[in-house]
Structures are given as C-alpha cells and as structure tokens.
Amino acid sequence: MSLNLFVKCKECGAIIERKKFIENKYVCNICGDYEVLDFKKRLSMILDKNTFEETNAHANFYNPIDFPGYLEKHESIVNKTDLDEAIITGRGFICGYKVMIGIMDIRYMMGSMGVIVGEKVTRLFEDAQDNKIPVVMFIASGGARMQEGIFSLMQMAKTAAAVSKFSKEGGLYISVLTNPTTGGVSASFAFLGDIILAEPRALIGFAGKRVIEQTIKEKLPTNFQTSEFLFEHGFIDLIVERNNLKETIGEILKIHN
Ligand SMILES: [Zn+2]
After folding, report:
1. Given a cut of 80, is residue 56 above it in pLDDT?
2. How far is the CA of 35 from the centre of ligand 1 (A)?
3. Which residues contact 127 (CB under 8 A, 6 or more apart)?
4. Is this model's pTM higher than 0.85 or not?
5. CoA carboxyltransferase N-terminal domain location, by residue (predicted)?
6. What is the pLDDT of residue 69?
7. Residue 3: per-residue pLDDT
8. Which domains does the chain have, with CATH numbers?
9. How far is the CA of 25 from the centre of ligand 1 (A)?
10. Which residues participate in the annotated binding site for Zn(2+)?
C-alpha cells in the first residue's frame, strides 16, 4: 500500500484513507482528533476560492536583542517550510463577504509572537479600519517569542491597542481559537474578539497547567484549558466543528453586514 494514499491518526493510530481524511477537513473519523492545520489548508477551507491576497508578506528578519542562535533557527524553518514568520495576513472573501484575515501557523517557532507578528497584526487591524471591513483571525500560538525578550511582551499591548481602536470605530472582529492558543497571544488579541469561536478540544490557556497547580497548590480538573471548559465558563461564545466553521463565520458576517 502506498503511504500517500493513507494517513495515520496521531491520536488513535487509525489508518485512514487520505482522500476521506481531507474531505473530513483533517479530522479523524474514528476518534475525532483534529489535525493542526498549516495556513494553506486553513485558507483553502475558509476563504472563497482564489480570493486571497496576501498583505505585508516577507518582513525582514529582526533580532532585537541579538539572541544567540535565533537567526539560525529562523533560517532552518525558512528552508524547511513556506513560512518566514508565524502569521500570514491578507484579504479575501468568506461566503461572499470581504474580510481581512490573519492565520497563525505553529510550524514557525510554535506560532509565537515577536515584533513582526505584532506589526502584522496591527497593520491588519489598521487596514480593516481604513476599509471598514471585518477581521477574522485564526489563532494558533505557543505565546510570546522568548528570543525577543521584552520586545515580544510589548506586542501584547501593541496588538491590544490596535484591536481597541478598530473596535471603537465599530469594526467587527471574529476570533477563532484553535489548538493551541496559549501565553501572550491568548492574553492579548486572541481573546479580544467581539465574537470568540473555538474548535473542539483545543488547548487554550495562559500559563501551563502544571505551573498553575504548583503555584496555587491545588489539583485542576482534567478538562481545564480546553475549549469545552472555557465555553462552560463563559470565555468562548461557540465551539464550532471544523466542518461548519466557514458557514458559521459566513452567517455572523451576514448578520453584521
Ligand atoms: Zn483518530
């Protein structure tokens, strides 16, 4: 059997026909596990065909604190993937409605937020504000970019300010939390959506579970920091299966059009 015709589920080990797996939007039909998507798969699933126009592509690599090994790590990812940063931004259409869209991709340093991610997110909201169109953001992030120290943390304030300005002008921001949404990104623009959607069973939180348990010296529930737990506690508006995601976003855009 050709390996290309089948995929193995990372969670339950089931061997699934690749064609079926793709038709099912990269969700295992046996255990329901969601494969983490790269930006191209996400784009093709969400945007209307051939409507994507990238903005602010190819920013120059920047090492604000001369962190050792950072450039080498960047270059190795550039050589291995189609990415040169952890977010792709642009404009396009969803169910016929024009949007600005941002898609984070964890293949680039765990989707962490450094100066360039902060700048691209900010420009995305500024463009949306100038053109009076909604923003749809797909979050996938390990948090702040360690290699950029304090400069990385400053992006939390910067992106939050951009969202706030956009919001004051009456802009609509739909944030979609996917696996994983953690750290400085969850503590800034990820949770500032007017409407916050999440994919099922995604890991969503700020600090890691173990760190919190050690700090508060208490055991946390097993489903702590999942989409479902956060939904129950009012942090998320709706958990949406990947199969219904585009239509759900289209419906929200229609209501607010
Ligand atoms: Zn499975």
Report:
1. yes
2. 10
3. 55, 91, 100
4. yes
5. 5-257
6. 98
7. 62
8. 1-35 (no CATH), 36-256 (3.90.226.10)
9. 13
10. 9, 12, 28, 31
Written as six digits, the tokens of 219 are: 């055991």
Please give the distance, rounded to the nearest whole angstrom, from the Cα atom of residue 176 to the centre of ligand 1.
23
Tokens coding 86: 């952890």
